[in-house]
Amino acid sequence: MIISQLSIAPVGVGTSLSRYVRIVLDVIRKNNIKFETNDMATVIETEDLDTLFKVVKEAHTAVIEAGAKRVITELKIDDRRDKDVRLGSKIKSLQ
Amino acid sequence: MIISQLSIAPVGVGTSLSRYVRIVLDVIRKNNIKFETNDMATVIETEDLDTLFKVVKEAHTAVIEAGAKRVITELKIDDRRDKDVRLGSKIKSLQ
Amino acid sequence: MIISQLSIAPVGVGTSLSRYVRIVLDVIRKNNIKFETNDMATVIETEDLDTLFKVVKEAHTAVIEAGAKRVITELKIDDRRDKDVRLGSKIKSLQ
Amino acid sequence: MIISQLSIAPVGVGTSLSRYVRIVLDVIRKNNIKFETNDMATVIETEDLDTLFKVVKEAHTAVIEAGAKRVITELKIDDRRDKDVRLGSKIKSLQ
């Protein structure tokens, strides 16, 4: 599994962005992607890069369709091939 | 309060980095900083930029002192002056 | 055009990563993508998200095929729909 | 030397941010920090973490003083202790 950190933020729509975070989370849920949201980003687990980019594209596009004229999307992919990693594995390894 | 996302990763010490994440969390705890760790980063709440940079410097330096010859530290600061924001506030605003 | 910042770094292969940066740049060149490399990342211009994700996937995969067992890929997409932006436009607007 | 990538962006002030990028660059120049700006970020060279955090704090604060009610500052620090690295060294090692 690939663990990624995703943040999608419209620019120029005011200081409150929670409406857009909800749009992103709706897209993630509809795609049946495992995720955990925190105050700064959403961490997601996907089986491969194609699934990941499909959901990121859909979420990014949904924010534009919601009226944003400029969108900054940040994605950090942690792809580990020496070990099976799941959402929550890395936190567990700290204990 | 200022909410920040912090990730400190040594380069060239193998693929498992959990030992170094623990060092970073120890520094955050010793400084009595409120934090939440997820699979990709640690989200922290600090009163001001000076407190933030003090703890980031201390954590970054601790990873070097633990033997890392190259360290990549990533910090994303969300500083909102129109509203009092705490650790957990942004998640709450989504509900 | 969409302007993005890309960084692909293997973890656990030593402190020198320039060999892998060259692999990433080769993939970008072969795809005829306009780019500018700096000391911390490569800035690229793509016509749409599909082109962007295709080249990021190919570059990320090439680093894994070169022997990396863990790869961290970071992508920051700046997608502006109110204005035609090209590689170099933002620097020009500062002058 | 420590090489860092810095991006400071106000949220909620419209889609054009070049006015604020200029404020950040002015602070960097006044501090006699070596830098290179690209379309997505500014890469800077500092002697140590104290100098780095001093200039980041000053630039972040200048953007708030210019009227931004919310500022997102992103900093990626590449601190290499096994080799003397300067602004431009990493690009040179690719040739």
Structure description:
- The structure is a homotetramer of 95-residue chains.
- Chain A has a 4-stranded antiparallel β-sheet with strand order 2-3-1-4, covered by helices on one side.
- Chain A is 36% helix and 31% strand.
- Chain A is elongated.
- The longest helix of chain A has 17 residues, at 49-65.
- Chain A starts with a strand and ends with a helix.
- In chain A, 45% of the residues are buried.
- In chain A, strand 2 and strand 3 (42-46) form a beta hairpin.
- The model of chain A has no long low-confidence stretch (mean pLDDT 95).
- Chain A has 3 helices and 4 strands.
- With 95 residues, chain A is of the alpha+beta class.
- Chain A has helices at residues 18-30, 49-65, 89-92; strands spanning 2-10, 34-37, 42-46, 70-80.
What descriptors fit this protein?
homotetramer; 95 residues; alpha+beta; 3 helices; 4 strands; 31% strand
List strands and helices in order, with pairings.
The structure is a homotetramer of 95-residue chains.
Chain A: E1 2-10, H1 18-30, E2 34-37, E3 42-46, H2 49-65, E4 70-80, H3 89-92
Antiparallel strand pairs in A: 1-3, 1-4, 2-3
Helix pairs in contact in A: 1-2
Summarize the structure.
4 copies of one chain form a homotetramer. Chain A is an alpha+beta fold and 95 residues long.
